[in-house]
Amino acid sequence: MTEKETATLSFRGESYELGVLPASLGPDVIDIRRLYADADAFTYDPGFTATASTKSAITYIDGDKGVLLYRGYPIDQLAEQGDFLETCYLLLHGELPTHQQRRAFDKKIIYHTMLHEQMYKFYNGFRRDAHPMAVMVAVVGALSAFYHDSTDINDENQREIATMRLISKMPTIAAMAYKYSIGQPFIYPRNDLSFAGNFLNMCFAVPTEEFKPNPILTRAMDRIFTLHADHEQNASTSTVRLAGSSGANPFACIAAGIASLWGPAHGGANEAALSMLEEIGGPENIPEYIARAKDKNDSFRLMGFGHRVYKNFDPRAKIMQKTAHEVLAELGVKDDPVLETAKQLEQVALSDPYFIERKLYPNIDFYSGITLRALGFPPSMFTVLFAVARTVGWIAQWKEMMNDPKQKIGRPRQLYTGPTERDYVPEGNR
Ligand code: CMC
């Protein structure tokens, strides 16, 4: 029998043996669960930079090598050889589907694409200039007010239906948020189209003329969905898990994830990256913005650069860059100042010691903004598209948590630095 590995902690004259949990890939984990009971101490790790908040068998990232695997399969192989719905099946079930499994899965997804008719009226309550992410948070949260037959988290069948509903309705909800913002009529889903084709149709078709989704652009849209489908325990996924750990229903949990994704340090970065490129205006202004990004007294950062985990090229960014070029070639986009600024900014940042030393490479959001803009989406929709794609990752992670018999409510502790106990002072004596 091999001896179990342990780690030893010396603290205030005592020694504590801590177990080590083996990972199938990546760093093993020191098990500190008994630390508070045994040593009366907490650990301190704001931002979870060295803390595994959960066990998971879904997605693996090696940020130093630039590796991203969904259930063991490299992201580039899935994005280039597979498609989004196949990836959804893989993330949810752990294996790629057989032909029959795939057909059955597609049928289930297609069955749920429409929204409850009353939900259409919901949109009229929003201002036309509302940010579509605000609409997404509200409408997805409201799903739990419409689909009462899939909110019982203890019923496996209801969990399954909620999963299908979320993946399937998210494009419809997102496209409606877009149509509402531009004052065009909602377009109902079409089940004869692919997942991505249906989404483009709901966004860009109008009742007055026929719209045929372009196969190259549809493939690009599908690839964007695949690239964003999951990303381990990032802020929004951790938010979904934390919300779910209290027993909240899946629609509420996904609404929480959307709220977390909205921030510019996370999913909002694609919108922020494009706004930044537009603000820079042209290659001649790049040096000024590079200087600002390096200036510690200036809060400006190069949006679309850097990543908490990737300290090498983001593997998604490589495929996204290629997809961007395919889309721009198909659409015949040339002499675009935003594109020219992006190309030159990338070169300047990749050769600047500030960015090299800090391992700040362009991330997926740098290229996805350019691609989505070329596809015809306004920047305010970029994070919405990220949410459409990430829904499967959130729900797969939520289900994994719900199926874990050791699952308990997430309840971080703190290092208290406030006042010690003191007596109340009546207002007249303060
Ligand atoms: N521009 C300029 N400097 C930067 C940038 C940037 N984009 N990102 C990090 N730095 C600097 C930072 O100032 C710090 O420098 P120093 O060590 O001298 O103080 C160093 O690099 C490390 O930064 P950090 O803030 O400690 O790194 P982090 O891991 O906490 O932050 C990040 C990661 C993604 C929030 C950050 O790189 C960032 O704000 N990037 C821009 C926003 C962005 O593109 N986000 C999308 C991430 S990918 C999509 C997703 O997964 O959601």
Overview of this structure, please?
- Helices cover 50% and strands 6% of the residues.
- The protein is built from 18 helices and 6 strands.
- The model has no long low-confidence stretch (mean pLDDT 94).
- The structure holds carboxymethyl coenzyme *A (CMC).
- The site of carboxymethyl coenzyme *A has 20 residues, from helix 17.
In brief, what are we looking at here?
This protein has 430 residues and is mainly alpha-helical.
H/I helix tally: 18
The SS-based structural class is mainly alpha
In the predicted model, the low-confidence regions spanning at least 5 consecutive residues are none
Question: How many runs of DSSP E, i.e. beta strands?
Answer: 6
The end-to-end span amounts to 68 Å
CA radius of gyration: 24 Å
